[in-house]
């Protein structure tokens, strides 16, 4: 039997083709789930916060002191700790919230620095992870005076 159209003529070749059913449903990018660890968001936020002019360091004095000691111990995990020091992230499926503790340089506007840190962190985290940043809480724990020495001693190794 031959397919015909309403005029009674045989139907063109393309109308007799069967439609192809797509398997898996949806775009390949939507098949599966992506999870992002808290530490990943903490690293991104820590680096973004350090990029702001006026941020001298991250974390409280005590955590920076312990971090300096940890950095000097072989295998102490100093690389990760120094990047995430002063940053705490809570990551959900589509949103994240961040708490940052910073030390600012003397003479800068703390409100301006905090605003720039917030903007930079939100932009970096949202761009790199696709997560919505619902809040960035910033605690200024210290002010670095021009004549103060850093608490982190210089390494004796060169």
Explain this structure to me?
The protein is of the alpha+beta class. 33% of the residues lie in helices and 21% in strands. The protein contains four helices and four strands, in the order H-E-H-H-E-E-H-E. Strands 1, 2, 3 and 4 form a four-stranded mixed β-sheet that branches. Helix 1 packs across helix 4 and helix 2 runs antiparallel to helix 3 (78-84). The N and C termini lie far apart (88 Å). Residues 153-158 have low confidence and may be disordered.
Give the H and E element order: HEHHEEHE
Morphology? elongated
Tell how many strands the DSSP assignment holds: 4
Q: What's the helix count?
A: 4
Instruction: Compute the average pLDDT.
Output: 81
Radius of gyration: 27 Å
Descriptive terms for the model:
about 160 residues, 4 helices, disordered C terminus, single chain, elongated, alpha+beta
């Amino acid at each position: 039997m031959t397919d015909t159209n309403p005029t009674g003529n045989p139907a063109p070749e393309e109308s007799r083709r069967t439609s192809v059913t797509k398997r898996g449903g949806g775009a390949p990018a939507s098949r599966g789930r992506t999870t992002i660890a808290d530490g990943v968001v903490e690293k991104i936020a820590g680096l973004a916060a350090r990029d702001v002019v006026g941020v001298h360091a991250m974390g409280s004095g005590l955590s920076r002191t312990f971090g300096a000691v940890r950095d000097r111990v072989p295998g102490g995990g100093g690389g990760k700790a120094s990047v995430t020091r002063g940053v705490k992230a809570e990551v959900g499926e589509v949103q994240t919230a961040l708490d940052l503790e910073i030390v600012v340089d003397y003479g800068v506007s703390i409100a301006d620095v905090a605003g720039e840190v917030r903007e930079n962190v939100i932009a970096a985290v949202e761009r790199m992870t696709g997560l919505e940043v619902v809040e960035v809480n910033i605690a200024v724990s210290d002010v670095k005076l021009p004549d103060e020495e850093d608490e982190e001693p210089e390494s004796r190794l060169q």
